[in-house]
Structure formats: structure tokens, C-alpha cells
Design a protein that fits this description.
alpha/beta; Rossmann fold; 8 strands
């Protein structure tokens, strides 16, 4: 997500750090500017685990999509895509199911510039990119129907997105509206930032983002669990990212408390 104008359209200030580019920096990517690196380094001075947190979030997405594809899920709607980082969601899904279909959605003009990287689908499958805002679910769903069959299960991915939506914008309603038309057997894949682990440090991190004009609202475990109401959480339930199906060979360097709750749930 990026800062927006009064009418909800995205705006981009090249002189301010941008969350998508800062995330790219934390992932050791190349699609960021000096201002983004400076803000990210500011975060790292008091929260040196920021890179580990970004990488843990990315690993969660990869594991979650791989797990769902292995279970037979063939369609994915990824909202809040961000700057492409390989392997992208469609590469994970189509690595298991070559004819899987994926719709990527973001309102960020930075992501639009890189969208071509999201469209290199296997010939058997299909990927599309939609420029749209999660705060307008009807527009997203209308566009997604051009690619996805809503009579069959869909994996709805909201990874590291909803903490950029404050309560005034009613994120629980947005999630409900996005899930409502999806077929039974669809799944919600969600990760969300929290201050439960280290409130003081996370308050300082959020101040860096807010100083760049970005709306951020971290939530407690109970508040995040509310996004899964009326859904069935898959094992191991709602967990911190570092604890969610933690591989036995996880490097010791990853042994940090990541301030991010993650989970997958199935629509009945």
C-alpha cells in the first residue's frame, strides 16, 4: 500500500521512503532508492531483526501457497502483491500445478512498473495484474472474475497488507466482502504485524513509516484472529511467523521472535 490522495488514488513522493521499496531493501532486493535505504537503515539501528522479519514473511507466503497447491488448489487471488521477488506466488503455485491461475492486485504505481515480471506464466496457466485498491473489493472481484472461476475454490492471499488499513476503514468488512463470493473450500492466507512481541520497539518502527505518510495499525493476536471468524484455521492455527511450520533445519540466525502473526483458514 502507498499513501493516497483524497479520492483514494495512489500518489508517490520520490523524496519520501516508500514501504514497498523498504521491504525490497529488507529482502536484499535492488528496487529501492537512497531515501528508502536510509529509512530502512534507521529501522535497523533499533530493530536489527527487520530483515529476518521480512524474510520470514516471504517464507510464510511460499510455504502457504505450496501447501495449498499440493492440496489441489488451482486458483489464487493475491492482494497487496508488492514489488516482485522471486519466487513469486505464481511460480510457487505453477511449480506444483502448471495450469494454476493467479491474479495479482496492488494499488501501488511502483508495483505497476514491475508488473511484467508477474506475468511470465507457464503456458499451461495464466497470470494477470490488476491495478486496484483493497478498500474497493467489488472492483477487485469484478476484475478477478475475468480470470478465476468463483464456482471453484480460490486462495485469497492478504500477506503483510492489513496492517496498512486502519480500523476507520473497517478491514474486517473488507475481508468478509472479498471472501463472500468465493466458493466453499477457498482459503484465506494472511500475515499481519503485531506489537505483542516488543511494543516499545514496534512503536518506533511504526513512527518511521508514519513519518513517510503511511497509515499503519498493528494489532493484537485476538484482533488478528477476528479476520478468521467463520473460517476453519488449518494447523498450527494462528502463530508467530517463526513458529508456523518451522522447518527442523531452520538456521540459527532465523531464531528470532518475528512480530508477525500468520495463518491459513478454509471457508466452509
Amino acid at each position: 500500500m502507498t499513501a493516497t490522495t483524497d479520492d483514494g488514488s495512489p500518489q508517490l513522493n520520490p523524496h519520501q521512503p516508500h514501504p514497498a521499496r523498504m521491504y525490497d531493501y529488507f529482502l536484499n532486493g535492488k528496487d529501492h532508492h537512497v531515501v528508502d535505504a536510509a529509512a530502512a537503515e534507521q529501522v535497523l539501528t533499533f530493530y536489527p531483526q527487520a530483515k529476518a522479519a521480512a524474510q520470514a514473511n516471504r517464507r510464510f507466503m511460499q510455504r502457504a501457497v505450496g501447501q495449498l497447491a499440493q492440496s489441489g488448489l488451482r486458483q489464487f487471488l493475491d492482494i497487496g502483491t508488492g514489488i516482485p521477488t522471486e519466487p513469486n506466488l505464481h511460480q510457487i503455485a505453477q511449480g506444483v500445478i502448471p495450469d494454476a491461475r493467479v491474479v495479482y492486485v496492488d494499488n501501488d504505481p511502483i508495483v505497476l512498473r514491475h508488473a511484467e515480471a508477474l506475468l511470465n506464466s507457464r503456458p499451461e496457466g495464466r497470470t494477470e495484474y490488476v491495478q486496484a485498491d483493497v478498500r474497493h473489493p467489488e472492483a477487485i472481484l469484478d476484475a478477478a472474475r475475468e480470470v478465476l472461476d468463483f464456482d471453484e475454490p480460490v486462495g485469497l492471499s492478504l500477506v503483510a497488507l492489513l496492517h496498512f488499513i486502519d480500523d476507520a476503514q473497517d478491514p474486517r468488512r473488507l475481508v468478509h466482502d472479498l471472501l463472500a463470493p468465493l466458493a466453499p473450500g477457498s482459503h484465506l492466507v494472511l500475515s499481519h504485524g503485531t506489537a505483542d512481541v516488543d511494543p516499545e520497539t514496534m512503536a518506533r518502527v511504526m513512527e518511521v513509516y508514519r513519518s513517510g505518510g503511511v497509515t499503519v495499525q498493528l494489532r493484537t493476536r485476538d484482533e488478528i484472529a477476528a479476520f478468521f471468524e467463520e473460517l476453519v484455521l488449518l494447523d498450527p492455527g494462528l502463530a508467530l511467523a517463526g513458529d508456523w511450520h518451522r522447518p527442523v533445519d531452520t538456521p540459527e540466525s532465523d531464531d528470532v521472535q518475528v512480530p508477525l502473526y500468520v495463518g491459513i483458514a478454509r471457508k466452509q
